[in-house]
């Protein structure tokens, strides 16, 4: 085919990647590295993948409904947002139940742990926040799903108490961010962090960010400063030290706070810096949930070369929740940035 003015290059000259690593291919290749693998974990991940795709699809559709809502439709925007929270949870629950590989499921949207008795031989437990940051949905801000996977102990009775585990027991964790495109970040215990981008035309997550490593330091902090009245002195001192550097040559840090953990975490992972939601005098246990928000994120950040600690400066992955919806303060980010918070706390005898 000859190229006419303004018609672009002929197909034969386009650079087409014919050897794409999809999430499905990635999981198959990972499985083949483990001779003992039965394929159960891979099947569970396929079910997870389906729930991410579905949630991404419904979030995009909901935005359209909102647009028509603004133009005078009888649908109240608030109602639709609430429905989307429920839809996200229902999609997740159905995907996990029907995977046949999930015995226990903890969701932020469910008061009790769901026990799938129909899968008594299933060896995995999943913890998740199906749509984190949902208070932002109205404004079209990126929200996401946070997830973690535990392998149940031999002889498990399928009881929710079995999930009061530290994040160091997670076999895999990650999150998706439903933004301009859907991004998926996943890591396995002791492994690399890999980032995938949803190709809507192919309907596949494509490996676009292999072996993600976060910058060792970066002058960006991300925290809800509206809570500073309630912060402990150490926390105030730490953030002040970022804003008012002692050295004359020192530049103050930039502030970036979206208020949607997945979006703040994804930016921090890519650009570096620190994300924090400290425990304070008003919320002595912090806001974010240990099992399905803090621990999965901590594993991603550590495996990408960063650090994550709670408000007592304990390694986040060692924190054991007292109940499935237990909360914790968290500081996570670039290695050197988190070290600065730890050092300020040490000075105060923590
Ligand atoms: P949610 O699980 O009810 O959506 O709340 C969690 C969200 C996080 O995404 C975010 O980091 C935080 O709450 C923001 O809280 P705040 O509005 O207090 O700054
Ligand atoms: Mg949440």
Description:
The protein is an alpha+beta fold and 350 residues long. The chain folds into two domains: 187 residues, Fructose-1,6-Bisphosphatase, Chain A, domain 1; 128 residues, D-Maltodextrin-Binding Protein, domain 2, CATH 3.40.190. It is built from seven helices and 15 strands. An eight-stranded mixed β-sheet has the order 2-1-3-4-5-6-7-8, with helices on both faces. It has a five-stranded mixed β-sheet with strand order 10-9-11-15-13, with helices on both faces. A hairpin with a 6-residue loop joins β1 and β2. The longest helix is centred in the first third of the chain and has 31 residues. About 4% of the residues have low confidence. The structure holds 2,5-anhydro-1,6-di-O-phosphono-D-mannitol and magnesium ion. Magnesium ion binds next to β3.
Keywords:
single chain; 350 residues; alpha+beta; Fructose-1,6-Bisphosphatase, Chain A, domain 1; D-Maltodextrin-Binding Protein, domain 2; 2 domains; 5-stranded mixed β-sheet; 15 strands; binds 2,5-anhydro-1,6-di-O-phosphono-D-mannitol; hydrolase
